[in-house]
Every structure is written in structure tokens, then in C-alpha cells.
């Protein structure tokens, strides 16, 4: 389990992070990039690992209405919100270092999760057990800021580290996107570090939504070939059995 207590994590989903996930400029761009990557893929079921309050699955269900959505999170509060937001979804509460679903989904998305997990190898092994075709992982890399430690990050991956671990645990990496230079990282992340990430949590009123939208537009100028946000698409390697 990561350094953030389960109680604090539950409380965060109750009153702190919902609007950040819906309106935050980084979250919106990350969803945009992930959807661009997965559109060419063929999948009937999707599992969101660390699904939070379900905003990403709800967005995917709108674009891909025929998919079967699954979500897991270790926060019961988050899963309760996700169940309301995604009617007909299949949701479970557990830690992916301790358990894996018996079902396999065609596409598994694990976004902004591995940086919180000390035992990322066990997590990857359990992801392999749940993946029918494709795995997509997004996570920070490069220098870790102090505010990231405060929200439970235990690592930022070094260059090539995540790809090596994915390839070593039953997958074959198909593509890698490194996004964010310079406006997200280093500039925005440095700003969040200086301010203790104030202004990112809680309810977004009209002014905060307007500011977030302006930053979102600015982030459109970021490079998709250089940056500290890494998004990796991999396929199951059938020659390597799940462990």
C-alpha cells in the first residue's frame, strides 16, 4: 500500500478530487492522448485500474457505447461514485498488489497508479492476469517534486525503466508517448511544487474552470515526443505465461 493512508484516500474522493479529474488541464489532456492511442484498437471490454470516481470510464462509454466497462480501485468511496456515474459498469474494491480479477478484459488501462505502488512488479504481474489483449499505462517519469510525494508517489520512473519492466512481465511494448514539455513539465509541475499544488483540489467554480480551460489550451502546445508524462501501449505476449 502506498504512503497515503486508505482513510485519506477515501476522503479525497469524497470531497477533493472529483472536479480536478473532470476539469483539470492535465487530466483532460491525458484522457485525450489515451483516447487517441486506443481508437485504432479492437476491444469489447475495458478495465480501468485505479478508476477513481469513474469519469474516464464514463467518457469512454460515451465514445464507445458498446463496450463493457470494468473498474477497480482501493477506495470504496471512489467505487461508489463510479457505480453511479457508469450505470451497468462492473466495479470492485481491492489493491492490485494483493488480488486480480478472474475476468480478462480486452483493454486494461492503468493511468497514474503505478507511481503510488512500492511493489510495481507484483502490480504488473496482476495486470497481466487481467489483460486479454492490450495494456495501457501512464505515469510520471523524471525528477519527483515534493508535492508529488505528499500525494503518495513513491517513484517517478527513469528513462527506459517502465518499458523494461512492462516487457519483462508478459507484454510486448507497441508504442511510447512522452508528453508535456515545456508547459506541463517542467513549468506547471514546478509551479505546483512552489505552491504545494494549491488550487487543484476541491470544487471548481466558474473562475477556476475558466483558468483551467486556459491552461488546457496552453498545454496543447506541449511536445508529444518529449516530456515527463509517459504513456505506454503494450500487447500481451502469449509466449510468456502470467505469473
Summarize the entry for a quick read.
With 243 residues, the protein is of the alpha/beta class. 41% of the residues lie in helices and 20% in strands.
| Number of distinct beta strands | 7
Q: Mind summarizing the main beta sheet? A: 7 strands, mixed
| Average of the residue pLDDT scores | 91
Kindly report the oligomeric state of this protein: single chain
Strand content: 15-25%
Rg calculated over all Cα atoms:
17 Å
CATH architecture: 3-Layer(aba) Sandwich
Count structural domains: 1
Could you please say which CATH topology applies here? Rossmann fold
Question: CATH superfamily name?
Answer: Vaccinia Virus protein VP39
Q: Strands across the major sheet, in which order?
A: 3-2-1-4-5-7-6
What gap, in angstroms, lies between the N and C termini? 20 Å
Shape: globular
Unreliable stretches (pLDDT < 50, length at least 5) are none
Our count of helices gives: 10
Helix content: 40-55%
Series of H and E elements: HHHEHEHEEHEHHEHHE
| CATH class type | Alpha Beta
Return the structural class. Answer: alpha/beta
How would you explain this protein's 3D organization?
- With 243 residues, the protein is of the alpha/beta class.
- The protein has a single domain (6-235), classed as Vaccinia Virus protein VP39 (Rossmann fold), CATH 3.40.50.
- It has 10 helices and 7 strands.
- The chain has helices at 6-15, 18-23, 25-38, 55-63, 76-85, 120-130, 146-150, 161-167, 183-195, 206-219; strands spanning 45-49, 68-73, 90-93, 105-111, 131-140, 171-179, 229-236.
- A 7-stranded mixed sheet has the order 3-2-1-4-5-7-6, with helices on both faces.
- The radius of gyration is 17 Å and the shape is globular.
- The two termini are 20 Å apart.
Amino acid at each position: 500500500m502506498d504512503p497515503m493512508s486508505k482513510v485519506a484516500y477515501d476522503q479525497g474522493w469524497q470531497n477533493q478530487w472529483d472536479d480536478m479529474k473532470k476539469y483539470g488541464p492535465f487530466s483532460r489532456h491525458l484522457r485525450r492522448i489515451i483516447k487517441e492511442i486506443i481508437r485504432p484498437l479492437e476491444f469489447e471490454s475495458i478495465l480501468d485500474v485505479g478508476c477513481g470516481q469513474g469519469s474516464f470510464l464514463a467518457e469512454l462509454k460515451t465514445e464507445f457505447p458498446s463496450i463493457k466497462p470494468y473498474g477497480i480501485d482501493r477506495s470504496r468511496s471512489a467505487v461508489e461514485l463510479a457505480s453511479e456515474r457508469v450505470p451497468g459498469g462492473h466495479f470492485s474494491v481491492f489493491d492490485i498488489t494483493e488480488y486480480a480479477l478472474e475476468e480478462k478484459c480486452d483493454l486494461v488501462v492503468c493511468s497514474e497508479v503505478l507511481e503510488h505502488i512500492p511493489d510495481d512488479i507484483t502490480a504488473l504481474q496482476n495486470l497481466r492476469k487481467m489483460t486479454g489483449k492490450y495494456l495501457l499505462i501512464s505515469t510520471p517519469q523524471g525528477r519527483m517534486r515534493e508535492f508529488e510525494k505528499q500525494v503518495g508517489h513513491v517513484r517517478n520512473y527513469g528513462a527506459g525503466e517502465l518499458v523494461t519492466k512492462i516487457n519483462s512481465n508478459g507484454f510486448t511494448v507497441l508504442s511510447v508517448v512522452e508528453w508535456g514539455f515545456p508547459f506541463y513539465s517542467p513549468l506547471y509541475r514546478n509551479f505546483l511544487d512552489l505552491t504545494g499544488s494549491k488550487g487543484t483540489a476541491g470544487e471548481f467554480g466558474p473562475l477556476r474552470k475558466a483558468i483551467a480551460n486556459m491552461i488546457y489550451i496552453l498545454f496543447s502546445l506541449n511536445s508529444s515526443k518529449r516530456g515527463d508524462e509517459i504513456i505506454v501501449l503494450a500487447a500481451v505476449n502469449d509466449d510468456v505465461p502470467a505469473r
